[in-house]
Amino acid sequence: MSTEVRLGTDPQGAPALLFTRRYPHPRSAVWNALTEDDMLSRWFPADARVDAREGGTLTLAFPGGEPEVVPITGFDPPRLLAFHWSGEDLRWTLEEDGRGCVLRLSNTIDDPEWTANTAAGWDTCLTDLAAVLDGRAPESGPLPDEELVEYYRAALSTD
């Protein structure tokens, strides 16, 4: 199981990183992992609290930092979760796929110099999500591996 990552545009036409990953789990299980505090906090590198509703918020508390309150900008269970975080728009969509689910993530690009780091970070998170859905503990550290960042720097280069 791997994550497909490419440069493209979000639904409003803004430059974005586009991620696609298939999970052999029902859409409802993946949705719960995106919207339930305890599940989200297991695969995302912050303590997360979700007021899962249209107009709700996502509160992220990274180790050693102040909690960030992020507005939920789109909410259509169990298909869509969108929010605006650190100057970027993130849109998570889930589609049923046989006995599994296809997750698509669009992350607009606020700082082009940081694109490879963002891609590596989400790749790591989506791998950790797979572990949690499988009932395993995530194996990654709090930051993406520098080798993965370099991989994405080369893979996403537009030179």
Automatic annotation (TrEMBL):
Membrane-crossing segments per the record: none
Domain Activator of Hsp90 ATPase homologue 1/2-like C-terminal as annotated: residue spans: 25-133
InterPro entries: ASHA1/2-like_C, START-like_dom_sf
CDD domains (UniProt xref): SRPBCC_CalC_Aha1-like_6
Name of the molecule in the record: Uncharacterized protein YndB with AHSA1/START domain
Family listed: Belongs to the AHA1 family.
